[in-house]
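Incident log entry.

Two folding requests arrived from the same account within the same minute. Monitoring flagged them as a possible duplicate submission, but the sequences differ. Recording both here for audit purposes.

Request one:
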Amino acid sequence: MLGRAGKFADGRPEFVVSSCEASLKRLGVDVIDLYYQHRIDPDVPIEDTVGAMARLVEDGKVRALGLSEAGPQTIRRAHAVHKIAAVQNEFSLLYRAEAEETLQTTRDLGIGFVAYSPLGRGLLTGSVPGPETMAETDARRRHPRFAPENIAHNMELVRRIEVMARTKKCTPGQLVLAWLLAQGDDIVPIPGTKRKERLLENIAALAVHLTKDDLAQISESIPVGAAAGLRYPEPQMKSVYL
């Protein structure tokens, strides 16, 4: 993710091309189905970055283009250069204000929305240990939402989800994934997991039926902006939703 001089993004056209070539080599393929600019470089016009990505499409090395952590205006400017197929931004019951704002733009332009961290980096499963018991290698220790001053508040919000999940005879994770899927057919959640049992649990969210009243109750249980702590540490916040 780090670009030049320790930045979290490098949108220079030459870097776009070299990164694609390196990915093709590592993957051992001739073409990439969906090529993302995973963070927006504020020092490079998005038109220049997407222009280079578009040339990769013309050269047959990439089939479709995507952006990640892009704001509405950036998406519109990029889409004017070349069709953007998908926008990947964080979206969960805990963090949804920016995602819901972005959806207005992606839907207007016919762009799919890929929701990453739909389980709030595990918080919404109700099974996250406290920061004092997290492994030293656990990347979540760096995230403000897991900081000692925030975790108790956030877990109290999750308790509300646990109560509703019991009534639906599903896990909290399945409930919030079902809620997210119900927000629109254009939304594709991508929960991450390392274990087969968690993968199967996530897939089973497709079988959770939620009524309009259920959806409203879930939304109201954790109001927009209720979560404590930023999505990323302060320095990284300068590279998201640009």
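Request two (distinct sequence, not a duplicate):
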Amino acid sequence: MAFDHIAVLGAGAWGSALANLAAQAGRSVTLWARDSARAAAMAKSRENPHLPGARLHERIRMTSTLADAAGADAILLVVPAQASRAVLSALGTLDRTPVIACAKGIERGSHKFMTEVIAESVPGATPAILSGPSFAADVARGLPTAVTLAANDEATASALARTLGSPAFRLYHSTDMRGVEIGGAAKNVLAIAAGIVVGRGLGASAAAALTTRGFAELSRFGQALGARPETLTGLAGLGDLILTCSSPQSRNFSLGVALGQGKADALRGDKLAEGAATAPVLVEMAKEKNIDMPIAAAVAAVLEGKQSVDQATESLLTRPLRAEH
């Protein structure tokens, strides 16, 4: 399988970083921005204002026309999870072209994972998912990073991993698409909780307990939906959870810190935190399948204004004691 032309849909920091990776690997890259003025400005400056210091590779061609991306050999979908269906629906029919979801979320209303949204929205596409512990700034600087790329077919997953991988960007391949996307979606919600702990000044011991018990929730949810245990304990699950629960580079963690500090405008910032949209969906799905996810439920309650941070914290601390398993 030859993937010589890569299209990247979404010209944010992560999209630009991935576009540079593909170009550095020798691919021809089309980078799509929804806004034509932004596409023109980036084409002229060869820079992304959200990724300072990282110059766009000469092999990257900017566009604001989706049709320019439809003829690519593979497509990286790097728009927000809740906007994915609208963008994909405008692509039209594809002929077995791999479409790799790079957003970490679950669609509100439908409860669909990103690979399911791809399959429904783009007839003929081959859905795939890329996820793992990675920050756009680190990848853009060439710092060592390892993530997971999953597709239903191992040959496709392996070929895509080879296409995008480099010594500094190590791609492990998998066929457990559900496990990879559950890890990415759930950890964003838990990262908000971890940020709240830090913002509220609850201490390092509480942060460690929160992350550990959060991983237990992620694992219960994943296994109930058919994810493989090794995926959940791998890069896309535990690895990504560790990263986003411990760094202010994570938008979800930073949102949690702001909530913990009592900032009333925390949800009105210009930086998208995918976990804010995913939290209520995750809780709804957990209730449907009778999966105990008290931390995720507490995050959703705080985001929806149903509980204060202190009330949510008390609800977790006063839960009945039980055996750890």
